[in-house]
Amino acid sequence: MPLTPEKAAYYETVIEKLRSTADYREYEEAFQDATGLPLTLEPASQLTMALCSKHQARTSFCSLMNKAGHSCSTCQALHRGIEKEMGIADSDSTERSAAEGTTLTEKSPTSVGAVNQAFGDAPRTFECFAGLCETMVPVKAGNQLLAFLKTGQVMVKEPTRDAFRQAMARLHDNKPDAQLSDLEQAYFATPIVPPEKYRAMTTLLKTYAKQLSIASERILTELDNSEPDSIRKAKEYLANNYSQAITLNDVANAAGISPFHFSKRFKETVGIGFAEYLGRLRIAECKKLLWNPNLSITEAAFEVGFQSMASFNRTWRKFEPQSPKEYRQTKN
């Protein structure tokens, strides 16, 4: 079943609660101190790939690639595959990946992760066209995929000049010598982790992901037991009416309580304010519409309930690292 925006926002609340625990902060700091690598916990509904986004874990090589306007077809194909796996992408996603000629196969913790198979509980490591690896470990509550623990980007073997030249040749454009020199310097500065050490790191993440899964189930139970009927009614109203002009009074009336008490109770229960929740909901629906190349960005924005492009652009920038145009380019 596709993950609805309402459910996605609900699960994101769980992930935010996990991130805020002392246990997670302690583990994140210890992992970074021990390995020298970043660790992030990303909601499955907001998953980003380092090379084709402004991900905080990007290496200098990927930052330069992104700045130059390049994105990796391998990363994009994997991202679409993950979205399809989670039920938030259309069935044409995998066909587009195949049409691009991208091959993804599953072998070991230091090779590319298969995106056309169920995630299960296994970590997935993918390798970009330049040989950089990034690993994702699923965090679940029962059978529901909630998030990924992510680390990277590293190489598992020594970079060579031949490998660098082959990677640049795949870009099909001619770069100035100065730009090539900067890219080459950044390429050879990428952290290198031997395969056996990388496998051990992945095992540590898998073990900790199981602990996070147990914690997330506890949080979900607490939320389910504590969510008042008024909040459930409000969420249902928003899911059915997000495309309309909605005020706080409208939702409070649907919830059956005063606007003041609704606003306070909604934030206490959901973890984010009513306006942010509605904004996230509309952006999530807009992203689906942007998969249609025949629909303009303006049309998509108004169709999901934004009353002006200024409001749409302001809200989009809050939650998305890419511009709407950049996001559409990764989907078509």
Automatic annotation (TrEMBL):
Keywords: DNA-binding, Transcription, Transcription regulation. Residues 232-330 form the HTH araC/xylS-type domain. SUPFAM superfamilies: Homeodomain-like. Transmembrane segments: none annotated. It comes from the Bacteria. InterPro entries: Homeodomain-like_sf, HTH_AraC, PocR_dom. Pfam families: HTH_18, PocR. This is Helix-turn-helix domain-containing protein. It comes from Pelagicoccus mobilis.
